[in-house]
């Protein structure tokens, strides 16, 4: 399959868009990145994802694949001969990876976003406690899944690494805004080391937004409307 037929519709700041971009980089698949404008939806996006009308969308030979984690699995299966598998080898381990990926999207990330929206110290404390509780669960999940190796997926970045790691830039922005360290060497030592390894990986580094640039962008999208 010709790699020049691969395109990703997305936006640079979206953690969900990072997922297919990292997956394609891991498989050494060249692709064209079609940048969407913030607050607008292109005709191509609406045509390619008429159900959810959301990014990311992978276009492969003009056929659209939608939803970030589904795209990662598609990339893993389509280019299975290129690079290590992103999903664990056993059915049980694959089920566990998918379970934690769903937990991150449905529970952990909404809590993280709530920190930036929290009003007042009490609300902020309550949301911080939720995120830290989630981090403790993910610290244990990392130790269980990695079995002493560098990544959730073992020796190489995999499905769950991508599912969680795509949020690290936003996590840093949240730490800056809240003045509170969420992943550190004391509370989550394994995750702290994993995050550093993940962000420095050659497949990740080119698509991971700079914290300062993302922080400026966050100010715009989370700006409170004038009273």
TrEMBL record:
<dbReference type="InterPro" id="IPR045073">
    <property type="entry name" value="Omega/Tau-like"/>
</dbReference>
<dbReference type="GO" id="GO:0006749">
    <property type="term" value="P:glutathione metabolic process"/>
</dbReference>
<keyword id="KW-0963">Cytoplasm</keyword>
<dbReference type="InterPro" id="IPR004045">
    <property type="entry name" value="Glutathione_S-Trfase_N"/>
</dbReference>
<dbReference type="GO" id="GO:0004364">
    <property type="term" value="F:glutathione transferase activity"/>
</dbReference>
<dbReference type="InterPro" id="IPR045074">
    <property type="entry name" value="GST_C_Tau"/>
</dbReference>
<dbReference type="InterPro" id="IPR036282">
    <property type="entry name" value="Glutathione-S-Trfase_C_sf"/>
</dbReference>
<dbReference type="Pfam" id="PF02798">
    <property type="entry name" value="GST_N"/>
</dbReference>
<keyword id="KW-0216">Detoxification</keyword>
<comment type="similarity">
    <text>Belongs to the GST superfamily. Tau family.</text>
</comment>
<dbReference type="InterPro" id="IPR036249">
    <property type="entry name" value="Thioredoxin-like_sf"/>
</dbReference>
<dbReference type="GO" id="GO:0005829">
    <property type="term" value="C:cytosol"/>
</dbReference>
<protein>
    <recommendedName>
        <fullName>glutathione transferase</fullName>
        <ecNumber>2.5.1.18</ecNumber>
    </recommendedName>
</protein>
<feature type="domain" description="GST C-terminal">
    <location>
        <begin position="90"/>
        <end position="227"/>
    </location>
</feature>
<dbReference type="InterPro" id="IPR010987">
    <property type="entry name" value="Glutathione-S-Trfase_C-like"/>
</dbReference>
<keyword id="KW-0808">Transferase</keyword>
<dbReference type="InterPro" id="IPR040079">
    <property type="entry name" value="Glutathione_S-Trfase"/>
</dbReference>
<dbReference type="GO" id="GO:0009407">
    <property type="term" value="P:toxin catabolic process"/>
</dbReference>
<dbReference type="InterPro" id="IPR004046">
    <property type="entry name" value="GST_C"/>
</dbReference>
<dbReference type="Pfam" id="PF00043">
    <property type="entry name" value="GST_C"/>
</dbReference>
<feature type="domain" description="GST N-terminal">
    <location>
        <begin position="4"/>
        <end position="83"/>
    </location>
</feature>
């Amino acid at each position: 399959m010709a790699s020049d037929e691969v395109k990703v519709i997305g936006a640079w700041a979206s953690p969900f868009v990072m997922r297919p971009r990292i997956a394609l980089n891991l498989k050494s698949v060249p692709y064209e990145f079609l940048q969407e404008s913030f607050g607008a939806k292109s005709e191509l996006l609406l045509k390619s994802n008429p159900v959810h009308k959301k990014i990311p969308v992978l276009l492969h030979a003009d056929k659209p694949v939608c939803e970030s984690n589904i795209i990662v699995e598609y990339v893993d299966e389509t280019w299975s001969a290129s690079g290590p598998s992103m999903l664990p080898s056993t059915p049980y381990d694959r089920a566990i990876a998918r379970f934690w990926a769903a937990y991150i999207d449905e529970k952990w990330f909404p809590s993280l976003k709530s920190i930036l929206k929290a009003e007042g110290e009490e609300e902020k404390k309550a949301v911080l406690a939720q995120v830290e509780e989630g981090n403790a669960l993910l610290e244990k999940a990392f130790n269980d899944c990695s079995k002493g190796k560098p990544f959730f997926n073992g020796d190489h970045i995999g499905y769950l690494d991508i599912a969680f790691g795509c949020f690290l830039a936003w996590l840093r922005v949240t730490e800056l805004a809240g003045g509170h360290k969420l992943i550190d060497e004391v509370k989550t030592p394994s995750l702290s080391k994993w995050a550093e390894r993940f962000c420095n990986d050659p497949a990740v580094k080119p698509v991971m937004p700079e914290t300062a640039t993302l922080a400026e962008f966050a100010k715009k999208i989370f700006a409170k409307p004038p009273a």
